[in-house]
Amino acid sequence: MESQPTQPVRRQKIFLIRHARPKVSKKGFFSAADARTFISDYDAAEVEEFVLQHEAIPYKEVKQVYCSSLIRSQLTAKAIFGEDVELLVRHEFREFERRIFSLPLLRLPLRFWLLSARALWLLGFNSKGIETFLQARARARQGAELLAQEAEQKNTAILVAHGLLNNFIRRYLQQMGWKSTLHEGSGFLSVSVLEKPDTKQV
């Protein structure tokens, strides 16, 4: 009796892409007020022109892309997948917030303000008026669950969002049984891919 040919197992995939570089200057020294203005400008900025031709991304198959409520995420998604792609804008995919603390009369490199603000926030401090690290992690988990449901229904889910958020979503997906098959870090336009077998096909 001849054996039937084995059907290849189709794999569900989730793509996490970080936005392109925003058009905003980081040069010079900043007061605390200047650093706060930078964050506002960064969140409102357009992105630099770019071309992303990545062999892992199924460009022609993509009709819908999840992105955050921040404009740099949406502009990047349109630039990658074309003006006709449907953007599914969700607050869950907004970048983790940061708050610049006050150090009167000091002008320091912007990197100092941003890194120290983030470090204090991660330690549970400096979250007055913004979501806490605990709340942000819960939001990232919700985003991971949403993407997993999308991939389970349609075999592919794509998110164009932000560096720190994407990293936490990737970790939560791994905890949910997704395997990381590509991880390019968290730089601008970096791509991560997670996969698992499509149980509907097995």
Keywords:
202 residues; alpha/beta; Rossmann fold; six-stranded mixed beta sheet; two-stranded antiparallel sheet; 36% helix; 19% strand
* Strand portion: 15-25%
CATH topology: Rossmann fold
Coarse structural class: alpha/beta
CATH level-four homologous superfamily name: Phosphoglycerate mutase-like
Helix content class: 25-40%
For the largest sheet, list the strands in their spatial order.
4-3-6-1-8-7
Low-confidence stretches: none
CA radius of gyration is 19 Å
Mean of residue pLDDT?
Answer: 92
Tally the structural domains. 1
CATH structural architecture: 3-Layer(aba) Sandwich
The number of helical runs is 5
What is the distance, rounded to the nearest whole angstrom, between the alpha carbons of the first and last residues? Answer: 23 Å
Order of helices and strands: EEHEHEEHHEHEE
Biggest beta sheet summary: 6 strands, mixed
Q: Please state the oligomeric state of the protein chains shown.
A: single chain
Number of strands: 8
What would the principal axes of the Cα set say about the shape? globular
Provide the CATH top-level class: Alpha Beta
Short overview:
This protein is of the alpha/beta class and 202 residues long. The protein has helices at 32-44, 71-81, 110-122, 133-154, 163-175; strands spanning 11-18, 29-30, 64-67, 86-89, 108-109, 156-161, 179-183, 191-197. Strands 4-3-6-1-8-7 form a 6-stranded mixed beta sheet.
Characterise the protein shown here.
- With 202 residues, the protein is α/β, with parallel strands linked by helices.
- The chain has a single domain, classed as Rossmann fold, CATH 3.40.50.
- It has helices at 32-44, 71-81, 110-122, 133-154, 163-175; strands at residues 11-18, 29-30, 64-67, 86-89, 108-109, 156-161, 179-183, 191-197.
- The protein has a 6-stranded mixed beta sheet. A two-stranded antiparallel ribbon has the order 2-5.
- α4 (133-154) crosses α5.
- The chain is globular, with a radius of gyration of 19 Å.
- The two termini are 23 Å apart.
- The mean pLDDT is 92.
